[in-house]
Amino acid sequence: MIRDAFVFDGVAHPFNFSPENTFGKAGQMFSDHLFGFNQALTPPDLTPWTPEQWKRDWSVEDIASLIADSDVDLCVSMPLPLTDMFADGLSSWEKCAELAQRYPDKFVFWGTVNPLEGRKALDLMEVQVKEYGAKAFKFYNTRYDYGEQVAWRMDDPKIAFPIFEKMLELDINLAGVHKGIPLGPQHIEHLQTWDMDGCAEHFPDINFVIFHVGMPFLDEVLYQLIRWPNLYASIAATINLIDRAPMQFAEILGKLLFWAGEDKIVWGSETPVFTPQWAIEKFMDFEIPEMMHTGYGVPPFTEEAKRKILGSNLLRLHGMEQPAIASG
Question: Pairing state of beta strands 137-140 and 174-178?
Fold first, then answer.
């Protein structure tokens, strides 16, 4: 905790950037772009990763150690299904499940599948939930197979809807999706957020988290958040603007607070792209400039709002109670 605020980190990835796991130029570009975020947005008083530290197979112990050295109370162990660019998907679901199994008081396992694989994906969802305790699912709308862009939409009745129906069958009502922030050779058009209306409308019993607030489609996301009660936004990979570009972060956060409100925003550190502690501390101390309150109508950024964003909103989406989690 920090100042008695429960911290539920929505994103940690046990990456595998080792050369033998990386497929060609596409995978290398993806790795380089994430590494660039670390180099550009790590505060100047901290040391960013070296290429040797970054381009390796991050172990379960590595991620657990980074989280343990912070005020994070609970963390999502989140896989990625990017088997188009990395042999194990980059953040393998098996390693993520192992994190939650070995450190059950610190990590919650989310599953992931590639909906384009049809029945194989549905079967894997069942394995991840029934055998490994997945509490939610993370999706990625674009692929880069055989040098070609292959995309699917969250509102596709044939590809996406069977996945969501399977979630409900498995009693899972929480899903996240990567939106915006194209990495590697991914085309930005496939990471737009237009498809979120359709999935939110057809599956009102599932809560969908739009990761990275859909940047650079933030304004579009805002108009989706205010209309659909089951849409939420994660500030993962945007919180890290807070030191190098505080006014830019203030604008993003201010718009979210004005349009969507403090109950619709969840936290994420993107460990190990960034170590979590500095962003937590700067967030708790952050103040939105007065001119944004008076000139743009941004509501006060209260201690209660900070507590909700840092932890209680994500606890609620998981159906968890803070005292039970805090007490182990």
Answer: parallel
Q: To the nearest 10°, the Cα dihedral for 143, 145, 148, 149? A: -10
Using an 8 Å Cβ cutoff, are 88 and 21 in contact? yes
Q: Which two tokens stand for residue 302?
A: 């209260």
Quote the mean pLDDT of the chain.
95
| CATH classification at residue 147 | 3.20.20.140
Q: What is the pLDDT of residues 130-167, one digit of tens each?
A: 999 999 999 999 988 777 889 999 999 999 999 999 99
DSSP 153-202: -TT-TTTTHHHHHHHHHTT--EEEEE-S---TT--GGGG-STTHHHHHHH
According to DSSP, the residues that pair with 111 across neighbouring strands are 137
- What's the CA gap between 291 and 275, in Å, rounded? 31
Provide the residue range defining the domain that includes 176.
8-326
Report the alpha-carbon distance of residue 235 to residue 267 in Å, rounded: 6
* 209 φ, ψ (degrees, to nearest 5): -105, 120
Domain count, the chain: 1
